């Protein structure tokens, strides 16, 4: 598993975290990393997701040169 830690500092970040949980929970797609669970630990929200061996899309496009159209095609999926 992978754990994404988000600091909850104010009401706006709390609302953003709740939105992210809903989006991850409600969108089942082979191109989206599966959400497993979440925990509130002190002032942090921990999102538990399936581990993605290749890294994030940002990691991929930072390491490999891709044309704008290629990035768009990957993001669209």
From TrEMBL:
It comes from the Eukaryota. Residues 1-77 form the Protein kinase domain. PROSITE patterns: PROTEIN_KINASE_DOM. The keyword ATP-binding applies. The keyword Isomerase does not apply. It holds the Pfam family Pkinase. Belongs to the protein kinase superfamily. STE Ser/Thr protein kinase family. STE20 subfamily. This is non-specific serine/threonine protein kinase. It comes from Acanthisitta chloris.
């Amino acid at each position: 598993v992978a754990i994404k830690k988000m600091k909850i500092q104010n009401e706006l970040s709390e609302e953003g975290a709740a939105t992210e949980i809903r989006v991850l929970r409600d969108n089942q797609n082979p191109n989206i990393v599966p959400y497993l669970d979440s925990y509130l630990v002190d002032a942090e929200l921990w999102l538990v997701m399936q581990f993605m061996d290749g890294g994030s899309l940002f990691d991929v496009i930072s390491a490999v040169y891709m044309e704008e159209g290629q990035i768009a095609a990957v993001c669209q999926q």
